[in-house]
Amino acid sequence: MTIAIIGGGAAGFFSAISAKEQHPDAQVSILEKSQKILSKVRISGGGRCNVTNGCTSIKLLSEGYPRGGKHLKKAFRVFNTQHTMDWFSSRGVALYTQDDNRVFPVSDKSQTIIDCLLRATKQLGVRIELGQSVKAIRPNGNKLVLELNKSKPRTFDKVIVATGGFPKRAGFDWLEKLGHQIETPVPSLFTFNMPTESIKELMGVVAENAQVSIQGTKLKSSGPLLITHWGMSGPAILKLSAFGARILNEQNYTFKAQVNWVNVSNNELVIAQLKELADQHPKKFLSNIKPYQLSERLWLYLLDRSQLAADKRWSELGKKGLHKLTTTLTNDIYAVRGKTTFKEEFVTCGGVSLDSIDFKTMQSQVCKNLYFAGEVLDIDGITGGYNFQAAWTTGFIAGRLGD
């Protein structure tokens, strides 16, 4: 049996390893159009490679996927985060889990993961062919013919598509021609640009527990918020961008973000807590007592935004000042004008519709012996190892080739 894996990324390599381990007599070839393999693995996690997420609850894990979570819930029963950690550990890669549940190799180097995958393919005898761009797939009886850009067509018994996502719908034309439904791709996992907002001057400051919502929508997210020299980033923003990918695209990335810096939705409770501070420290300056563990720079900025002097005493705050401060803390509004890709990690919402796939096997519903894995599918997760986990899971299942 001959098997072609289209794409030399995380899903492609894991599909190839899975296929060869479960079909040892098969000839498995990875066809990669560029001269580089595993390039996304290399840059992930700032070059450390966020291999997976430490969450072992399938229910909670599947909630980290704005698209595909329901389908993945079943797939995770076959291959989940614990399987991933065991897989790498059994091959000599020591891993550790951070407090935020992100899992990294102990070496803190993505090369460790790359070397492990390369070692596995070499030991199994998987062929890696670079500069092989597939422009079309043509069924021929029970076999599949791949039309290649720079060489004559090649015929395979089974094919796994693991190309990753494409930024434009046209990238999926060759798969749509086979009869697959395509969900138009739009960016996911991006940061917010705020060119007109002065908060950018606080770049580097983190609000550890903020809540962010988008005006006029039901979109809401909470967690650490990072202020950058172009606007806002951090888990709270990235999660919001992932779940709101289509809505924010429709708004042309021009909208208003409401920030609740203290993540307390009950204003009366915030007023009561600020009153308590005023009663405890009546003679202290506002600048000297920082509520909710806010950083000094952020607190001074929010006081100024509330038109309250930093050298005003807490006893002088008054009812009006109290309400101003509460409004700023719980409903601070910023104009967003555009987005920036998160680091170099390009993630799209969209791709081959999950309605076109049998998720038990990852086989195409419209083309026999054709399978899919990874981001080419309409699956995407929030930041924190979720996207790699989807690649490992779908790659492992696709590699079984329906067995």
Largest sheet: 7 strands, antiparallel
Distance between the termini: 14 Å
User: Could you name the CATH topology of the largest domain?
Assistant: FAD/NAD(P)-binding domain
CATH architecture assignment of the largest domain: 3-Layer(bba) Sandwich
For the CA atoms, what is the radius of gyration?
25 Å
Mean pLDDT: 96
Which homologous superfamily in CATH is the superfamily of the largest domain? FAD/NAD(P)-binding domain
Please state roughly what percent of the residues sit in beta strands, choosing from under 5%, 5-15%, 15-25%, 25-35%, 35-45% or over 45%: 25-35%
Largest sheet: spatial strand order? 17-16-13-14-15-12-18
Report the principal-axis shape: elongated
Total beta strand runs? 22
**Low-confidence region ranges:** none
Under the CATH scheme, which class of the largest domain? Answer: Alpha Beta
Total individual domains: 2
Count of alpha/pi helices: 13
Indicate the structural class.
Answer: alpha+beta
In short:
With 403 residues, the protein is α+β, with helices and mostly antiparallel strands. The protein has two domains: 2-186 and 344-399, FAD/NAD(P)-binding domain, CATH 3.50.50.60; 190-341, no CATH class.
Q: Can you give a write-up of this model?
A:
This protein is α+β, with helices and mostly antiparallel strands and 403 residues long. It has two domains: 2-186 and 344-399, FAD/NAD(P)-binding domain (3-Layer(bba) Sandwich); 190-341, no CATH class. 32% of the residues lie in helices and 26% in strands. It has helices spanning 10-22, 39-47, 58-62, 69-75, 81-90, 110-124, 173-176, 235-243, 245-250, 267-280, 296-305, 318-330, 386-399; strands at 2-6, 27-32, 52-53, 95-97, 102-105, 127-130, 134-140, 143-148, 154-156, 158-161, 182-188, 190-193, 206-214, 220-227, 231-233, 254-260, 332-337, 339-341, 347-352, 357-358, 363-364, 370-372. It has a seven-stranded antiparallel sheet with strand order 17-16-13-14-15-12-18. α2 packs antiparallel against α6 and α10 (267-280) packs across α12 (318-330). It is elongated, with a radius of gyration of 25 Å. The two termini are 14 Å apart.
